[in-house]
C-alpha cells in the first residue's frame, strides 16, 4: 500500500493490478472494482441497514470463533470484533457502497464488508488504512469464510431482523382496525356480494374482518420467519468446508446466536444449503400474500369511501391532500392508493425472486443479490406502507351513520331475515314489489298479514340482522304467503 499525499489517494493492489483509492475511504480495491463494474441500481447496499448490520454480525461471530479455536491471533480477532461492533452500532454504513444489484453471487458485498471492517480496525490500532500487511481483509477478517456462506447467512439474519420491525407494524395496524371495529359495532349497513346488495351487517363486523385477516398474515409471516434461521456457516465455497477448522462451524453458530438473539441452526447438508435458495422463495411468497390481502382491504376502503355524493359514501377517509389541479374541492384516497402500488411492487418482486431461485446452477446460486434486494425492498416498503395506512388513514376513518341507516332502511335485502317465517317464495315476491313500488319491506309484510308489526320489528332488529343475536325459535311458515306471490305476479 502506498499513499499519494498530493491527491490524497492510496494505492491498493490485487491479482488484477493496482488502483487508486480515496485516502479517507474505508473500502478498498475490491469495492472499487465493483463500483466500476456494477453502475446498475444507483442504490448502495447501505439502503438496507439491517443487511449491513448482519454482515458485521457474521464477521464478529467469525472473529470470535477463529480466536476460540486458535486459528486467528487473539489481538487481530479482538480488533476485528471491536470494529464489527461499531458497524453493528450504526457507524460507517455510508462506506458500504457497492450496488444492491451485482454480479459475482455477492462477492463484492462480502469484500466491501471485509475491507470496511479491516480498515476501521486498522485505524483503531493506529495504523493507516490499507495497511493489510498488519491486518488483512481476506486472510484475517475473512478467515474460515467464503462469500458463499457469509452472504446468504447475512441475508437471512438481516431479513429476520427487518421482519421483526414489520411484524410490529403489522400488529399495530391490526389493532387500529380492531379499534374501529369497536367504534362501529352498532352501525348497521348493507353488505354486498359481487358489488350487489346483500344482507345487512355492521360496519364493525366489516372492520373486524380486516383485523382478522391481518392477524392471519401475522401468524403466517411468523411461521415463515423460521425459514431464515437455517444457515450454512462453515460451508465455505460449495459446502465441503474446505479451509475451515473442524470446530469452526459449531463455534461460529454459537457466537452468531448470541450476537443476533436469533434461534439459528446450521443446515444438516451444507452442500444442499449452499446451492438451494428455496427458503427465500417461500419467505417472499408469504410477503406477497400479506401485500395482496392488504391491497384488497385498501380496495374496499376506496370503494366504501367513494363519492362523496355519487359513490358509496359509507365512510370518510381523512383528507390528506388536494386531489386535483383542476377540480376544486376534490380529495382522493391517496393513502390506500399508495399501499395498492406497494402491493403491486411486492408481487413483482416475488416473481423476480422465483425466477432467480430457478436460475441457480449446480453448487451455487449466483443471483442471490437480486433475491436479497427484492425481499429487503418488499419488507421495507410494506413496513412503511402499513405505517402510513394506520397513521394517515385508518385511525381517522369516520362513519356516515345517517347514510348507512337510510340505505339499510330502504334495502330489500332485509327480507332475507324473514324467510324462515314467511318462506322464500313470499320473500322474493315482496322484494320484487318493494323494488317496483319503493315501499318498505316491513310494511309490506305486515299489510299482507304474514307477520305482526311486533314480530317484524323483532326479527329486523340490528342485533338479529347482523347475526349478533341468534334466532332461537322459528315461527311456522304462513301459508297465506301463496297469495302474496300471486298478487306480486299480477
UniProtKB/TrEMBL annotation:
Residues 415-465 form the Fumarase C C-terminal domain. Coiled coil: none annotated. GO terms for molecular function: aspartate ammonia-lyase activity. InterPro entries: Aspartate_Ammonia-Lyase, Fumarase/histidase_N, Fumarase_C_C, Fumarate_lyase_CS, Fumarate_lyase_fam, Fumarate_lyase_N, L-Aspartase-like. PROSITE patterns: FUMARATE_LYASES. Gene3D superfamilies: Fumarase/aspartase (C-terminal domain), Fumarase/aspartase (Central domain), Fumarase/aspartase (N-terminal domain). This is Aspartate ammonia-lyase.
Amino acid at each position: 500500500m502506498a499513499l499519494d499525499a498530493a491527491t490524497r489517494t492510496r494505492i491498493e493492489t490485487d491479482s488484477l493490478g493496482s488502483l487508486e483509492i480515496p485516502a479517507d475511504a474505508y473500502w478498498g480495491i475490491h469495492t472499487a472494482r465493483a463500483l466500476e463494474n456494477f453502475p446498475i441500481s444507483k442504490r448502495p447496499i447501505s439502503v438496507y441497514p439491517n443487511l449491513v448490520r448482519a454482515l458485521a454480525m457474521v464477521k464478529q461471530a467469525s472473529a470470535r470463533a477463529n480466536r476460540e479455536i486458535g486459528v486467528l491471533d487473539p489481538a487481530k480477532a479482538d480488533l476485528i470484533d471491536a470494529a464489527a461492533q461499531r458497524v453493528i452500532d450504526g457507524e460507517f454504513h455510508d462506506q458500504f457502497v457497492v450496488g444492491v444489484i451485482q454480479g459475482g453471487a455477492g462477492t463484492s458485498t462480502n469484500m466491501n464488508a471485509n475491507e470496511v471492517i479491516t480498515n476501521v480496525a486498522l485505524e483503531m490500532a493506529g495504523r493507516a488504512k490499507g495497511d493489510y500487511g498488519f491486518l488483512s481483509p481476506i486472510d484475517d477478517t475473512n478467515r474460515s469464510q467464503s462469500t458463499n456462506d457469509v452472504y446468504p447467512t447475512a441475508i437471512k439474519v438481516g431479513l429476520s431482523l427487518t421482519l421483526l420491525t414489520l411484524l410490529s407494524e403489522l400488529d399495530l395496524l391490526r389493532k387500529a382496525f380492531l379499534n374501529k371495529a369497536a367504534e362501529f359495532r352498532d352501525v348497521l349497513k348493507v353488505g354486498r356480494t359481487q358489488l350487489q346488495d346483500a344482507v345487512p351487517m355492521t360496519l364493525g363486523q366489516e372492520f373486524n374482518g380486516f383485523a382478522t385477516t391481518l392477524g392471519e398474515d401475522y401468524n403466517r409471516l411468523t411461521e415463515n420467519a423460521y425459514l431464515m434461521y437455517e444457515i450454512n456457516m462453515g460451508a465455505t465455497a460449495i459446502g465441503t468446508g474446505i479451509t475451515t477448522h473442524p470446530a469452526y462451524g459449531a463455534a461460529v453458530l454459537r457466537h452468531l446466536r448470541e450476537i443476533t438473539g436469533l434461534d439459528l441452526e446450521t443446515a444438516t447438508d451444507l452442500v444442499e444449503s449452499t446451492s438451494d435458495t428455496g427458503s427465500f422463495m417461500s419467505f417472499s411468497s408469504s410477503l406477497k400474500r400479506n401485500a395482496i390481502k392488504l391491497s384488497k382491504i385498501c380496495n374496499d376502503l376506496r370503494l366504501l369511501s367513494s363519492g362523496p355524493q355519487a359513490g358509496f359514501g359509507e365512510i370518510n377517509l381523512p383528507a390528506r391532500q388536494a386531489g386535483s389541479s383542476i377540480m376544486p374541492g376534490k380529495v382522493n384516497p391517496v393513502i390506500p392508493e399508495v399501499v395498492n402500488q406497494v402491493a403491486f411492487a411486492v408481487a413483482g418482486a416475488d416473481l423476480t425472486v422465483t425466477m432467480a431461485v430457478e436460475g441457480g446452477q449446480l453448487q451455487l446460486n449466483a443471483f442471490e443479490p437480486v433475491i436479497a434486494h427484492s425481499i429487503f425492498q418488499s419488507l421495507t416498503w410494506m413496513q412503511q406502507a402499513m405505517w402510513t395506512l394506520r397513521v394517515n388513514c385508518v385511525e381517522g376513518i369516520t362513519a356516515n351513520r345517517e347514510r348507512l341507516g337510510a340505505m339499510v332502511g330502504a334495502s330489500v335485502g332485509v327480507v332475507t331475515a324473514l324467510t324462515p317465517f314467511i318462506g322464500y317464495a313470499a320473500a322474493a315476491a315482496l322484494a320484487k314489489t318493494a323494488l317496483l313500488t319503493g315501499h318498505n319491506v316491513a310494511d309490506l309484510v305486515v299489510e299482507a298479514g304474514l307477520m305482526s308489526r311486533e314480530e317484524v320489528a323483532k326479527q329486523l332488529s340490528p342485533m338479529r340482522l347482523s347475526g349478533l343475536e341468534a334466532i332461537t325459535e322459528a315461527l311456522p311458515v304462513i301459508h297465506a304467503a301463496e297469495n302474496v306471490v300471486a298478487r306480486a305476479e299480477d
